[in-house]
Amino acid sequence: MSSNNASQVADFTAPGMNSESADKVIAILDDRLVALLDLQLTLKHVHWNVVGPNFIGVHEMLDPQVDAVREMTDTIAERIATLGGVPVGTPKAIAERRRWEDYSLGKGLVAEHLVALDKVYNGVNGDHREAMETLAELDPVSEDMLTGQLAELEQFQWFVRAHIESSSGELKS
């Protein structure tokens, strides 16, 4: 990641926050921005490529998730700007800053996509939780923002898991 993406570029940050803390918060939020932009695109990809029994239910379940995640990215980008940073959401910059492999399924059955999507949510949600722990010390406002997002993201994962869970509570893998 280039230093311009992670560092503060304005001569200001939020009142009461020093520049060093702002830089750290911006870097954490930038990572979450990349993850949510990637999730948004992955959800839409699954929406377009899921087939088989229960197709329509999954197809229709995903669009509200896409919309909600899109709003989350906007909130994070605006927080980065509030702290004096520059939110960067161009495709090349997103790909360069990604720390994980691309979603590997193309056209696939409902169960295949939902098992893979559950793994995507594991990564996004786990990293959101870790970011919140760090932000608790640096910026409670950003921590609170991610806390609200994580509540929605965990619910979305529960929706996904409901399709791949057995009656005994085991997930397909």
TrEMBL record:
<dbReference type="InterPro" id="IPR009078">
    <property type="entry name" value="Ferritin-like_SF"/>
</dbReference>
<dbReference type="Pfam" id="PF00210">
    <property type="entry name" value="Ferritin"/>
</dbReference>
<dbReference type="GO" id="GO:0016722">
    <property type="term" value="F:oxidoreductase activity, acting on metal ions"/>
</dbReference>
<protein>
    <submittedName>
        <fullName>DNA starvation/stationary phase protection protein Dps</fullName>
    </submittedName>
</protein>
<feature type="domain" description="Ferritin/DPS">
    <location>
        <begin position="26"/>
        <end position="165"/>
    </location>
</feature>
<dbReference type="InterPro" id="IPR008331">
    <property type="entry name" value="Ferritin_DPS_dom"/>
</dbReference>
<dbReference type="InterPro" id="IPR002177">
    <property type="entry name" value="DPS_DNA-bd"/>
</dbReference>
<dbReference type="GO" id="GO:0008199">
    <property type="term" value="F:ferric iron binding"/>
</dbReference>
<dbReference type="InterPro" id="IPR023188">
    <property type="entry name" value="DPS_DNA-bd_CS"/>
</dbReference>
<dbReference type="InterPro" id="IPR012347">
    <property type="entry name" value="Ferritin-like"/>
</dbReference>
<comment type="similarity">
    <text>Belongs to the Dps family.</text>
</comment>
